[in-house]
UniProtKB/TrEMBL annotation:
Its cofactor is FMNH2. It is an enzyme of class 4 (lyase). GO terms for molecular function: chorismate synthase activity; FMN binding. Its EC number is 4.2.3.5. SUPFAM superfamilies: Chorismate synthase, AroC (SSF103263). Pathway: Metabolic intermediate biosynthesis; chorismate biosynthesis; chorismate from D-erythrose 4-phosphate and phosphoenolpyruvate: step 7/7. Pfam families: Chorismate_synt. GO terms for biological process: amino acid biosynthetic process; aromatic amino acid family biosynthetic process; chorismate biosynthetic process. This is Chorismate synthase. CDD domains: Chorismate_synthase.
């Protein structure tokens, strides 16, 4: 569902001369019984080569393709399937791009980019028009010479070696598509998705830093019912608790001055998510969220609800018991399932955590091998984040938004074409929920 794979073969040859595409005519098969088999020595009609690209597209109904590399001309996205008549401008997208951009503080990469976006299509007179929306951001602060050593040897724990293993060639400067700069397209598309979710169903998505290296924000210290964007953006590490924010900043500063880096955890919540999103078996909502989150650079772990800690509980302790609230709405007394049961959203707050690894070391010697397979030492240079998690916050929000808007459109298409069963189902749309007297 979340793949850009086609049912067509990766390489396909087509002929217009009655041939099979395999180098001979079907009529040639009759010659197999003769003593001499004639195989044409050259082709009279060239094959038409079709390459089905994979890996850069997410979504089915709301379909997003990102493009561009760290040191290319620019990066961005194409959004296909966006509903028409939604007010949209560059300013709507720029807010989240500014949260993601480099050079925000001393604990982020010093690369200086304004990350100013431009919409090239899909918007007419301030409204989406149902056509593909193209958003592009130019690259303006490249330093290709910083990567001269990396053209000869591989950075440990980066994509340098594996890109060579897969493609036999790679973009050295900035890591190419493996760079976090690729996420600009995701964040731009996520800003559009968040606007649709908020306008249609009142859904809000907030992410924040809950761990930086060994500094862990205690569970329950942040109220997910009342959490606001202002709380998250009140400090440079994007931790909504001021005391722990200072501890996290100190931990990042300690490794930053040594040219080292640390990892951390981003917690993300989604409030007012309509019930019923997700599908049984392979397209469960948590499976889609996990894929989306783990597709971000430097991610190494994903948890939903109680996550791995839930394994320490018995079923009687972990199960979320049901009750009926004052509106006659079925709810759960606890939310250890993280707002998703059986792969389908149940109306509670969806909560998840994504772990990000340490990424780079600058000016420090590390053992590695060269591209021609000789062991050596590498001193990496360039500009990198000493901790990626503060800038990862809007990236996580964007990926969660892309999943939810795609699932919302799928749910509407399948289950709202005819009148719903009001004894068991709820309408998806925010005004209909309010008219029914239901809290969100």
């Amino acid at each position: 569902m979340a793949s850009s794979l086609s049912s067509k073969s990766f390489l396909k040859a087509s002929r217009t001369d009655g041939g099979s595409g395999l180098g001979f005519h079907v009529s040639d098969l009759a010659k197999l019984s003769s003593p001499t088999l004639h195989i044409p020595s050259r082709r009279t009609t060239p094959r038409k080569l079709e390459v089905q690209a994979v890996g850069s597209t997410y979504g089915t109904q709301f379909r997003v393709t990102t493009f561009g590399e760290s040191h290319g001309g620019g990066v961005g996205c194409v959004i296909d399937g966006c509903p028409p008549r939604i007010p949209l401008s560059e300013a709507d997208i720029q807010v989240d791009l500014d949260r993601r951009r480099p050079g925000q503080s001393r604990i982020t990469t010093p690369r200086k980019e304004t990350d100013t976006c431009k919409i090239y299509s899909g918007v007419a007179e301030g409204l989406t028009n149902g056509c593909p929306i193209m958003v592009k951001v130019p690259n303006t602060d490249q330093r290709g010479h910083d990567y001269s050593e990396m053209s000869l040897a591989y950075r440990p724990s980066h994509a340098d070696a594996t890109y060579d293993f897969k493609y036999g060639v790679r973009s050295v400067q900035g890591g190419g598509r493996s760079s976090a700069r690729e996420t600009i397209g995701r964040v731009a598309a996520g800003a559009v998705a968040k606007k649709i979710l908020k306008k249609f169903s009142g859904t809000e998505i907030f992410a924040y830093v809950s761990q930086a290296h060994k500094v862990v924000l205690p569970e329950g210290l942040v109220d997910h019912e009342t959490l606001t964007l202002d709380q998250i953006e009140s400090n440079i590490v994007r931790c909504p608790d001021p005391e722990y924010a200072e501890k996290m900043i100190a931990a990042i500063d300690a490794v930053r001055v040594r040219g080292d880096s640390v990892g951390g955890v981003v917690t993300c919540i989604a409030r007012n998510v309509p019930r019923g999103l997700g599908s049984p078996v392979f397209d469960k909502l948590e499976a889609e969220l996990a894929k989306a989150a783990l597709s971000l650079p430097a991610t190494k772990g994903f948890e939903i609800g109680s996550g791995f800690a839930g394994t320490f509980l018995a079923g009687s302790e972990h199960n979320d018991e049901f009750y009926t609230d004052e509106h006659g709405r079925i709810r759960t007394r606890t939310n250890r399932s993280g707002g998703i049961q059986g792969g389908i959203s149940n109306g509670e707050i969806i909560s998840m955590r994504i772990a990000f690894k340490p990424t780079s070391t600058i000016g420090r010697r590390q053992n590695t091998v060269t591209r021609d397979k000789h062991e050596t030492e590498l001193i990496a240079r360039g500009r990198h984040d000493p901790c990626v998690v503060p800038r990862a916050v809007p990236m996580v929000e964007a990926m969660v938004a892309l999943v939810l808007v795609d699932q919302l459109m799928a749910q509407y298409a399948q289950c709202e074409l005819f009148p719903i069963n009001t004894d068991l189902q709820e309408p998806l749309e925010l005004p209909m929920l309010e008219a029914a007297g239901l809290s969100i």
